Write a sequence for this structure.
C-alpha cells in the first residue's frame, strides 16, 4: 500500500457514551488533497485528530503511510505505542489548527525553528536558514522577528503553516484553517494552501470553503453524524449531491 | 446649506488645500473636592512629619547609632541568606509538587495533594516550632537497610538540626506548598492548544513543559512569586523563636539591653523596607521580560516614565510607548 498515505477502516471513536465516529472508511492517496465537509459535530475534526494521535480510537484501524496509528500489532494482539513512538509519528505529520496555536513567547522565526531544533536536533543556524525560506514561501520573510501578537490572523496562520512545514511532513492536516479569520484574510491563507497542493503535498483539509474544496480538492468527503454520507469528485458532489443530507447542507453553505 | 457660505472643508478630502480646523481651547473643569482631599491629606502628612522630628521618643540618634552596627549587619545578612535559601528550595519543591499534581499517576498526585494540604493547613509559626523541637520527637536520625539491616548513617538530631537548618526546613517546606499552588495556577493558565501544537510537532511532554508551557506560565507565576519572596523576607522574623540570630533577633537583643525598643524596631523596619523595595523593583523587570510577545507595547520603566513625563507634552503622549 505504498501509494496510499492514509487508510481508515471502520474507525470508531467514543467520548464516554457518545459515539462520535461510527465507522469511517476512507483512503487518501499520496499527493491527494481531500476536503472534509460537514456540519459541526459531524466528527470531521475528531477524525483529523485521530490521524495525529491527538485522540485515540476504540475500534477499527487507521494507517498512515502503511503504519498503524496508535498501536503496534504483534501476532494478533495490539499493543499501545510508547510516548516516544507517538511523538516520532507526529513529527512526520504537519497539523494546522483553527486557532493557529502559535507559541506567543516566540517570534515567527523561533516558532518555525523550535521543532526542527528540539525534535530533530537540527543545528540552529541550519534551522534558521530553512525557516527563513519557509517564511518567504508563505510571504512573510519580513515578519521573521515579529511576535504572534504583532501579526494579523492571516499572517499568524501562514506562520503556523510554515511551522508545520519545517518538519518536512509527509502529510498535512488542516483543521478549519480559515474559520477564525476575518473574511478578507481568508484568501491569503488559501493561496498558501493552494501552492502546497500544487507542489504535491498530501493534504486532509477540514473546511467550509466550498470554493477551495471545488478548485483544489481531488476528493471531497461529506460527513454527518459520525459517518461518511457521500464522497467523490468535488465538482460532481457539489453540483449533483446524491443524498438529501448533502443537498440540505450544500444549499445552506453555497 | 447657504449657497453664499465659503466651501466647508470636506472631511474626506486629502488634497493639500484642505483647511485644518483650529485647536480647541475649552475652559478646564474645576475639581473642588480634589482640593479639599489634598488639603486634608497634606495636613495629616505634615502632622506626622512634625511628630517624627519633634517626638524625642523616636530617638533618631539611637537609630543611626545601630543602623550599621556589626550585630545588626550580621543579623541582616543571615535574614537575607535565610530568605534566599528558603525561597529557592520552596520554588524548586513547589515546581516539583505542581508537576506531581498534574501527573496521571494517582500515587504522585495524591502525595502532592496531601503535602499541600498539610503544610498549607498549619501555621508556619507552628511548623517552625516543630522543626526546632524535632529532637524530642526523633532523638536520632538513622538511615539504615530496612528489616534489621546495618545502619548507614546515624546522627543525633540535635546536632544535625541546627537553628539555621530548622529555620530553613520550616520556611522552605511551608513555602513549597504555597509555591506549588502558584505554579499550578500558572500551568493551568496556558491554553490547551499550546500543548496540542507542541505535541503535534513531535515534541515530548517534557520538552513541551520546559520549552512551551513553563515559559508562558511564568508570566502568571512571577507576580505572586514576587509577593511570596517579599512575604518570605518578613516571615523570616518569626525564626527568632528558634534562637536563630536574624535581623529582628539582633535588634531585639540590643533593645533588651538599652530599653530603646522603638528605635531598634525602626532599625529593623528600615532594613526590611529597603530590601522589600529592592525586590519589588526586581520583580518589575522580571515581569517585563516574561511579558514579551504578549503585550504589544512593553511596560515602561520608571526612568522611561519620568523621561516621557518631563519631555513630552500631553498631546504627543498618546500612543508613543516604546515598542516591544
Amino acid at each position: 500500500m505504498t501509494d496510499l498515505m492514509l487508510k481508515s477502516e471502520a474507525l470508531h471513536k467514543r467520548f464516554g457514551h457518545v459515539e462520535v465516529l461510527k465507522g469511517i472508511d476512507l483512503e487518501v492517496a499520496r499527493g491527494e488533497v481531500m476536503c472534509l465537509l460537514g456540519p459541526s459535530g459531524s466528527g470531521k475534526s475528531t477524525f483529523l485528530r485521530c490521524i495525529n494521535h491527538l485522540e485515540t480510537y476504540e475500534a477499527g484501524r487507521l494507517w498512515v503511510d502503511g503504519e498503524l496509528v496508535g498501536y503496534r500489532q504483534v501476532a494478533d494482539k495490539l499493543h499501545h505505542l510508547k510516548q516516544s513512538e507517538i511523538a516520532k509519528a507526529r513529527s512526520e505529520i504537519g497539523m494546522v489548527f483553527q486557532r493557529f496555536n502559535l507559541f506567543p513567547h516566540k517570534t515567527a522565526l523561533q516558532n518555525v525553528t523550535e521543532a526542527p531544533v528540539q525534535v530533530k536536533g537540527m543545528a540552529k543556524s541550519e534551522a534558521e536558514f530553512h525557516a527563513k525560506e519557509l517564511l518567504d514561501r508563505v510571504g512573510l520573510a519580513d515578519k521573521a522577528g515579529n511576535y504572534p501578537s504583532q501579526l494579523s490572523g492571516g499572517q499568524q496562520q501562514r506562520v503556523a503553516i510554515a511551522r508545520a512545514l519545517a518538519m518536512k511532513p509527509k502529510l498535512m492536516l488542516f483543521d478549519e484553517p480559515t474559520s477564525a479569520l476575518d473574511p478578507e484574510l481568508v484568501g491569503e491563507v488559501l493561496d498558501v494552501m493552494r501552492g502546497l497542493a500544487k507542489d504535491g503535498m498530501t493534504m486532509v483539509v477540514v473546511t467550509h470553503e466550498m470554493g477551495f474544496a471545488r478548485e483544489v480538492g481531488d476528493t471531497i468527503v461529506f460527513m454527518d453524524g459520525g459517518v461518511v454520507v457521500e464522497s467523490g469528485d468535488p465538482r460532481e458532489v457539489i453540483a449533483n449531491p446524491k443524498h438529501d443530507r448533502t443537498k440540505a447542507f450544500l444549499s445552506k453553505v453555497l | 446649506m447657504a449657497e453664499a457660505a465659503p466651501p466647508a472643508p470636506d472631511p474626506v478630502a486629502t488634497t493639500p488645500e484642505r483647511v485644518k480646523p483650529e485647536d480647541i481651547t475649552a475652559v478646564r473643569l474645576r475639581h473642588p473636592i480634589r482640593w479639599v482631599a489634598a488639603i486634608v491629606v497634606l495636613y495629616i502628612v505634615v502632622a506626622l512629619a512634625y511628630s517624627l522630628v519633634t517626638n524625642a521618643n523616636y530617638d533618631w540618634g539611637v537609630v543611626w547609632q545601630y543602623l550599621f552596627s556589626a550585630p545588626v549587619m550580621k543579623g541582616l545578612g543571615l535574614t537575607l541568606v535565610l530568605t534566599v535559601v528558603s525561597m529557592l528550595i520552596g520554588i524548586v519543591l513547589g515546581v516539583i509538587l505542581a508537576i506531581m499534581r498534574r501527573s496521571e499517576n494517582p500515587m504522585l498526585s495524591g502525595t502532592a495533594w496531601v503535602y499541600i494540604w498539610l503544610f498549607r493547613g498549619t501555621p508556619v509559626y507552628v511548623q517552625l516550632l516543630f522543626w526546632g523541637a524535632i529532637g524530642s520527637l526523633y532523638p536520632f536520625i538513622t538511615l539504615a537497610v530496612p528489616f534489621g539491616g546495618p545502619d548507614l548513617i546515624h546522627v543525633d538530631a540535635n546536632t544535625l538540626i541546627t537553628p539555621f537548618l530548622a529555620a530553613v526546613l520550616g520556611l522552605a517546606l511551608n513555602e513549597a506548598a504555597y509555591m506549588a499552588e502558584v505554579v499550578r495556577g500558572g500551568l493551568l493558565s496556558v491554553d490547551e492548544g499550546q500543548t496540542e501544537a507542541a505535541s503535534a510537532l513531535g515534541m515530548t511532554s517534557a520538552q513541551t513543559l520546559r520549552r512551551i508551557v513553563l515559559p508562558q506560565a511564568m508570566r502568571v507565576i512571577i507576580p505572586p512569586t514576587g509577593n511570596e519572596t517579599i512575604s518570605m523576607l518578613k516571615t523570616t522574623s518569626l525564626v527568632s523563636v528558634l534562637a536563630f540570630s536574624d535581623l529582628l533577633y539582633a535588634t531585639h537583643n540590643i533593645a533588651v539591653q538599652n530599653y530603646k525598643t522603638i528605635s531598634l524596631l525602626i532599625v529593623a523596619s528600615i532594613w526590611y523596607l529597603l530590601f522589600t523595595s529592592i525586590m519589588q523593583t526586581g520583580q518589575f523587570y522580571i515581569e517585563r521580560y516574561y511579558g514579551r510577545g504578549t503585550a504589544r507595547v512593553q511596560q515602561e520603566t520608571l526612568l522611561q516614565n519620568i523621561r516621557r513625563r518631563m519631555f513630552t507634552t500631553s498631546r504627543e503622549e498618546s500612543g508613543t510607548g516604546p515598542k516591544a
User: Anything to note?
Assistant: The longest strand of chain B covers residues 151-156. Residues 314-324 of chain B have pLDDT under 50 and may be disordered.
